[in-house]
Hints:
The complex is a heterodimer of chains A (465) and B (195). With 465 residues, chain A is of the alpha/beta class. In chain A, 32% of the residues lie in helices and 16% in strands. Chain B has a four-stranded antiparallel beta sheet, with helices on one face. A four-stranded parallel beta sheet of chain B has the order 2-3-4-5. Chain B is 31% helix and 16% strand.
Amino acid sequence: xxxxxxxxxxxxxxxxxxxxxxxxxxxxxxxxxxxxxxxxxxxxxxxxxxxxxxxxxxxxxxxxxxxxxxxxxxxxxxxxxxxxxxxxxxxxxxxxxxxxxxxxxxxxxxxxxxxxxxxxxxxxxxxxxxxxxxxxxxxxxxxxxxxxxxxxxxxxxxxxxxxxxxxxxxxxxxxxxxxxxxxxxxxxxxxxxxxxxxxxxxxxxxxxxxxxxxxxxxxxxxxxxxxxxxxxxxxxxxxxxxxxxxxxxxxxxxxxxxxxxxxxxxxxxxxxxxxxxxxxxxxxxxxxxxxxxxxxxxxxxxxxxxxxxxxxxxxxxxxxxxxxxxxxxxxxxxxxxxxxxxxxxxxxxxxxxxxxxxxxxxxxxxxxxxxxxxxxxxxxxxxxxxxxxxxxxxxxxxxxxxxxxxxxxxxxxxxxxxxxxxxxxxxxxxxxxxxxxxxxxxxxxxxxxxxxxxxxxxxxxxxxx
Amino acid sequence: xxxxxxxxxxxxxxxxxxxxxxxxxxxxxxxxxxxxxxxxxxxxxxxxxxxxxxxxxxxxxxxxxxxxxxxxxxxxxxxxxxxxxxxxxxxxxxxxxxxxxxxxxxxxxxxxxxxxxxxxxxxxxxxxxxxxxxxxxxxxxxxxxxxxxxxxxxxxxxxxxxxxxxxxxxxxxxxxxxxxxxxxxxxxxxxxxxx
Lengths: 465, 195
């Protein structure tokens, strides 16, 4: 029977199947960070269990870490306790860890791919919803809760009910200035924050094929913002080229065997999806959010919507609340929205290509005097590469701050956050109330829009400069 | 884990859609390394508003939350489930839940019962008119009963069985050790390790 990519990966990992029960699925790679793991390790300790496969488990420190003065002890005692707990747990259970100061440290979803640990056809989990990022390689990758983290640590498996599949076809050539981030924001605005519920999304079509691995990771990363557990893209030559030669990628005869297997993974031509949507890439333009969930987005050329435009009562109340929280008036052109902070970084847009796109816009220009701009690489290796390419010089000369690797202002768990009432243009993934700091207001944007916004002081695209 | 068969208690109406886990418990409360004591973080931002439903004396001691659609979206933090449980909630009713939140709830013993939005609206009206209304959630019959209302709800069969038996997932899986060993022996050699 014809199968989709997701179904092939699923079937290859079934350890046990019994009627009326979830499938027991084997997990090839388990990524761990300090926030969602302490209670899981505690659970193991309480029941006298060990980590079954420490050699398929990897920990990094990212959510809590500061992005300046990283070699000093973490100032916030609670953050420090959480990072310390991770270090102790990893030592006790034999789990490899990349701590602050290690060249491999960084955001968990940047580190896995750059090491070559994330490969096509694998199952990848992490106690973090943005694990969907790894689907860019044709892996089945999804976020799990702390109980499931404990389950995977103890058994290297998870009991799971099969997901439904949805094909997201994005065909045609992306117009100049339209990036992977704009594609994903447009997809979420189209299907809604609940539209992907219960589905694995498979992104297909010529516009997706044309994306780099970095761009594909951005698209898969935000699948969760459409409610989907996972997003996937079939592996192809772009994937293989990215992987070849990376530290943990197969070598020699193993490489050939791996590529032969990976080449069997793309969905069969006659495979059936439970749902399918179509987007014409040629109609897309730079996209920004105006509200308090990632589905509340519009093309930058648009205006803030009115509660009167709502299709039902639930939607009307949601728009009203969002406008109140965001301090916006219906009908206001999105380009007139002034920002205080611009944040570039996160597991969505903290990779080298994102920093290149920012530097290209900033080059020879100055950040508006009323705007503070933070540029935070997703990993130490990304930072080092950017410095080799001289991107840090361009970024600093424009007046922006150049930081160390971490989750930073994406989620207000470390010193980088918005003050109440402050407004940001952010390349991160969530514009929820208070996400970047209590009372903070977030507009999600692409790296290029972030840079243009920093220069003009209001939401803008490079074409506006 | 405690067995869950039926539960009767008072209920709070939460007339909001898309309640994400950042609203259920903001990130600043996630730094703790314990499993309990998250009740102070539940809906922390909203609880600063004296008008917020959980701040109204009439809704003190509620154990059932009647939420709008798309409850629990966003971050995978299981702390959202713990915060609801630590506050005293046993059940959340909604017409649609986010997947990860729902999975986490099942593991932790918090029942997420999925009802038609029309039934949610009726229950909202009922508990708003009389906050002391007792609501019964019957997992055995998959029914919510309150006043004149009887509404059926949807819950995954396996989750229902586990909740009713009070079973721990890891214990169940560890009984499959042979199947796991057998699978591991056949994994392709080119797969990476972290060691």
